[in-house]
Amino acid sequence: MMEPLVDPNDFPASRKSAYLNTASVTLMYRGAEKAAAKWMADLATDGTITFDEAAEESVFGELHRATAELLNAKEDDIAVGSSATELMASLAWAVAPDRGSNIVGTGIVFPSTIYPWVRVARHTGAELRFAKGRGQYVDPDEVIALIDDQTAVVCVSHVEYSGGQQYDLARLARKAHDHGALFVVDGAQSLGAIPIDVNASGVDALIASGYKWLCGPFGVAVMYLAPHLQARLDPGVVGFRSHENMWDLQPTRLDLPKTARRFEPSTMAYGSALGLAASVMYLLRVGVARIRDHNLELADLLIDGLRERRADIVGPQRDEERTSIVAARFPDYDAAEMARRLNAARVVVSARQSTVRFSPHLYNERADIERALEEIDRVRR
Ligand SMILES: Cc1ncc(COP(=O)(O)O)c(C=O)c1O
Prior knowledge:
The protein is α/β, with parallel strands linked by helices. The protein has helices spanning 30-46, 53-57, 61-71, 84-95, 111-124, 140-146, 169-178, 198-201, 227-230, 270-286, 288-308, 335-344, 366-380, and strands spanning 18-19, 78-81, 102-106, 127-131, 151-157, 182-186, 205-209, 221-225, 312-314, 326-329, 347-348, 350-352, 355-358. The protein folds into two domains: 8-20 and 288-380, Aspartate Aminotransferase, domain 1 (Alpha-Beta Complex); 32-285, Aspartate Aminotransferase, domain 2 (3-Layer(aba) Sandwich), CATH 3.40.640.10. The chain is built from 13 helices and 13 strands. Strand 12 (350-352) and strand 13 (355-358) form a beta hairpin. It is globular. Pyridoxal-5'-phosphate binds next to helix 4 and helix 5.
């Protein structure tokens, strides 16, 4: 019998529904909500009396430290931004692959991962190469076959949002580096749910949003930038915070920090960063390897139940490619309609690419999977 992994009071909404939708938006860790709300309330009542210049300067400190620990990196390797998209765009403009070079990605990736590179390529004339795959699966060998000595960047989502396929980061990093290319990873669908060691895997940059598997709020994202790139890249987005001393305020000089902090351009909803710091510290306490094992156990139960109901599971082809994102097609039932009916019955899922996507996380228990399967039976009756 599976034990609950966390105290339900840490996720007060988790007993109100069978919430299987973390790949869209997480239920927020209560401590994250509290920290973000406290910052907002303090600002509303005290303005710069409490949120003074020193406080603003050091506001990302906790999140730098917690994210570094999560990734086995250093504080200086971490930048905080408002969204994964914004950080990816700033990085893409900083790298700006030239005409004659190419950018390799997959054709099933979430658009936000690759659009920043598409936009830069339109400007520079760099070529885009997409591994098309079949259905919601891309064979990693197809990605590798597209890499050559003209490849400037290989950019993939660690876990595909639609079918939940996971790539072997170390293998792709090695292949990219063999050809002198950078390996950039979108970790929005993995960080917080799957252990990632940026040193062991050799990624050059990794970006993740706060509001999915990290159990934090909207309005904040994090980026790891490998040390060899930190003094070299000119961010696409800069502002007063980009200066090495943010209170320098001399518009005629822009001396960027020699750390990942150069990718932190300006003000933001700072409370979100404090909230995310709280949830990352919480995930560290629970342990990401335990979270992965728990989530996969739930995914196994779900897959068994779905197969008994003659559903097709799309995505991962090999065991090591599996995650707790499970996407299913029903032979006798439209996926969008099934998702709508399940949501109406408080089994919270998404419809994606003609599948029903389930995405359990640490706050889910066996009972949530059982509820989902019962509700599927009810819908099909
Ligand atoms: C893989 C991936 N990257 C990025 C995003 C969007 O990130 P953000 O909202 O932080 O820009 C999503 C959202 O679903 C996603 O699945």
